Amino acid sequence: MDDLTETPPQPRRTASDTPFAHVPIEIIVSVGRARPTVAELLRLDRDAVLTLDRRVEDPVDLYVGDRLIARGELMEMDGENAGQLAVRLTELVDLSGGL
């Protein structure tokens, strides 16, 4: 008869205890897109207005590289950071497949 010892279950790793947890990443916030022709682009001058495909109240998209990770709404910080832009997350993309 073999003596089998049951191995206790290993604790599940969380994102904060991986070796990559403290590696900084760049998140790009996309507020909209413009699609001018090359001729229109060449005519742009200082103070020109480039109309985007979104309205001020529309959600913004957050990307890591070319991968959409979340959506949110732009907001302006108060207090010590008054005037600085920020994003309040309103929707997270399921990243279970990894980045």
TrEMBL record:
Entries under Pfam families matching the protein: FliMN_C (PF01052)
GO MF annotations in UniProt: cytoskeletal motor activity
Residues of the Flagellar motor switch protein FliN-like C-terminal domain: 22-93
An example Gene Ontology CC term for this record: bacterial-type flagellum basal body
Top-rank taxon: Bacteria
Location in or out of the cell: Cell membrane
GO biological process, one term: bacterial-type flagellum-dependent cell motility
PANTHER family named among the record's database cross-references: FLAGELLAR MOTOR SWITCH PROTEIN FLIN, PTHR43484
Protein family (similarity comment): Belongs to the FliN/MopA/SpaO family.
Protein name: Flagellar motor switch protein FliN
Species per Swiss-Prot/TrEMBL record: Rhodobaculum claviforme
